[in-house]
Specification:
2 domains, three-stranded antiparallel beta sheet, Enolase-like, domain 1
Length: 385
């Protein structure tokens, strides 16, 4: 009997995640995480349209064919909502395929090039504070890499005190953890070009691991000028959604680390292609993942087969996870047990995790209405968050 996709469930769960469960005619279950943070209901509607229009009744194993149908089947394509919907479906299809062959996804993608992947830990929150103590605490817990926001909101051209404060925070962390620990600094797209140039010069003496999203993705042409002001590696990509979005910045040559999100940029199928493109340009991969366990499991499967995978973001104890955390939805949380700043590749079939569906169903009963903050400058204008 030919295996077909027969049904699905979508669960919106705290703190801000959307889980997809795909079911087949012979009882297999695959999980995906299609989400745009703060737009869960919008993405949920897109997933329902795609599944009902294209995949119900189809054989799940033709993943590349399904990806092409989902992407090219609409005259209007791309963007965060549609690509995130495709991403979650793609993750679930790979989970199904791995379970059908009783193998991890990475074995189906050619086999692992590593046994484990380094991870980093967030400190400091949206408006970074108490970073020194937090850094020391996380290093004591075994992490060898950290990430922090550079600043809170900035004016388009701000005063020297704002630059000095950002440099002092990084200096405090560097002083507390020493030169052996890597410290990524996230500009979060909240910094204008003139301020980015001043900030990278001020941060350089403290040797950050990378600076992330130094400008908004709408202004990637500014990276050429910003890169002239620093030797710090430049990272970006969390708000880019396909290989075509990444093509131009790879050709321009001013990015050192790509950060596509496997729940936003078309899933495992698409980000594997982005990783291969990046390798050809000698650019590293550090997938974006301040999300849930399914997204993280998908990232680790990709890291396993990507020679240029540098480090993996993960959301344990991140400041967004106030009511639920990344391990809460797993039947076996030890699959993401971090040791010496690394996580081992899971050896289970599919994505390598088992979702605690009873807990998912229970938490889906809660009212989930997360939206990112809207920051306002002191003159009443809207600031970048």
């Amino acid at each position: 009997m030919t295996r077909t996709i027969t049904g699905y469930e979508l669960y919106e769960v705290p703190p801000r995640w959307l889980f997809l469960k795909l079911e087949t005619s012979d009882g297999l279950v695959g999980w995906g995480e299609p989400i745009v943070e703060g737009r869960a209901k919008t993405v949920k509607a897109a997933v329902e349209e795609l599944l009902e229009g294209y995949l119900i009744g189809e054989a799940p194993g033709r993943i590349e064919h399904h990806w092409q149908r989902l992407y090219r089947g609409g005259f209007y394509r791309g963007g965060p909502v549609l690509m995130s919907a495709i991403a979650g479906i793609d993750q679930a299809l790979w989970d199904l395929k791995g379970k059908a062959f009783d193998a991890p996804v990475y074995d189906l993608l050619g086999g692992p090039v590593r046994d484990r992947i380094r991870v980093y830990q967030w400190i400091g929150g949206d408006r970074p504070a108490e970073v020194g103590d937090a850094a020391a605490e996380q290093v004591d817990a075994g992490f060898t890499a950290l990430k922090m926001n550079a600043t809170a909101e900035l004016r388009r051209v701000d005063n020297p005190a704002a630059v000095d404060a950002a440099a002092e925070r990084l200096a405090e962390v560097r002083d507390r953890v020493g030169p052996e620990v890597d410290i990524g600094v996230d500009f979060h797209g909240r910094v204008s070009k003139p301020m980015a140039k001043r900030l990278v010069e001020a941060l350089e003496p403290h040797e950050p691991f990378f600076v992330e999203e130094p400008v908004l993705p709408e202004h990637l042409d500014d990276l050429a000028e910003i890169s002239q002001h620093t030797t710090i590696p430049i990272a970006t990509g969390e708000r880019m959604f396909s290989r075509w979005d990444f093509k131009e910045i790879l050709e321009d040559g001013h990015v050192d680390v790509l950060q596509p999100d496997l729940s936003h940029a078309g899933g495992i199928t698409e980000v594997k292609k982005i990783a291969d493109m990046a390798e050809a340009y000698d650019v590293a991969m550090a997938p974006h993942c301040p999300l849930g366990p399914i997204a993280l499991a998908s990232c680790v499967q990709l890291d396993a087969v990507s020679p240029n995978a540098l480090i993996q973001e993960q959301s344990l104890d991140i400041h967004y996870n106030e009511t639920s955390d990344v391990l809460d939805y797993l039947a076996d949380p030890e699959v993401f047990e971090y040791e010496d700043g690394y996580v081992d590749l899971p050896d289970g079939p599919g994505l390598g995790i088992e979702i605690d569906e009873e807990h998912v169903q229970e938490m889906a009963e809660e009212d989930v209405d997360w939206h990112n903050p809207v920051w306002i400058h002191d003159d009443g204008s809207v600031a970048e968050w």
